[in-house]
Write a structure and sequence with these properties.
Blueprint: H1 2-5, E1 9-11, E2 16-20, E3 25-30, E4 33-36, H2 39-46, H3 54-64, H4 71-84, E5 87-89
Antiparallel strand pairs: 1-5, 2-3, 3-4
Length: 90
């Protein structure tokens, strides 16, 4: 597991994270459509820049939101995001 924490997640090619005023939420745009994101998903994806490691994303989220123990939630989300093709690891 520790090796996976060193991977650097980034938004997959063909996807773009942006605020959608009409929807009043962040969305993930891709050629076939879009996915409306909840605040948590948008926050996690906002830190997935392909430069930070997974452990760095977790640490930055915990710092930004003054929260502890986000590791399992972030790992679960990233696993699902990779399976859906939204995130890739550098």
């Amino acid at each position: 597991m520790s090796n996976a924490l060193n991977h650097k997640p980034g938004i997959a090619l063909g996807y773009r994270l942006q605020w959608e005023p009409v929807q009043e939420c962040h969305v993930l745009l891709y050629p076939e459509g879009m996915v409306q994101l909840n605040e948590t998903a948008a926050a996690i994806l906002g830190f997935c820049d392909g430069k930070r490691s997974v452990i760095g994303v977790i640490a930055d989220l915990e710092n930004e939101y003054e929260a502890d123990d986000l590791r399992e939630d972030v790992l679960t989300f990233l696993h699902e995001a990779v399976e859906r093709g939204w995130v890739r690891y550098a």
